[in-house]
Design goal:
The protein is α+β, with helices and mostly antiparallel strands. It has one domain: Ribosomal Protein L24e, Chain: T, CATH 2.30.170. It has helices at residues 17-24, 29-34, 41-52, 56-61; strands at residues 3-7, 10-14. A two-stranded antiparallel sheet has the order 1-2. The longest helix is centred in the last third of the chain and has 12 residues, at 41-52. The radius of gyration is 11 Å and the shape is globular. InterPro entries: EutB (IPR010628), EutB_N_sf (IPR044941). It comes from Methylomonas albis.
Amino acid sequence: MNYSATARGKRSHFRDLPILWAKAMPRRAADELAGLAADSEVECAVAQQVLAEVPYGDLSKNH
């Protein structure tokens, strides 16, 4: 499932829940090495906003 939102005129797209989750979390070396860390604080904030709106059922399907 694709997730997306717009903030400050920039549209951010997140291909799937694991990527959305990684971009919503504080920067970690492992996420950076894997290329999953948010590119900016704005992208991280957008990911957090989108993650907050993900239905619980979607979260439990992707454990």
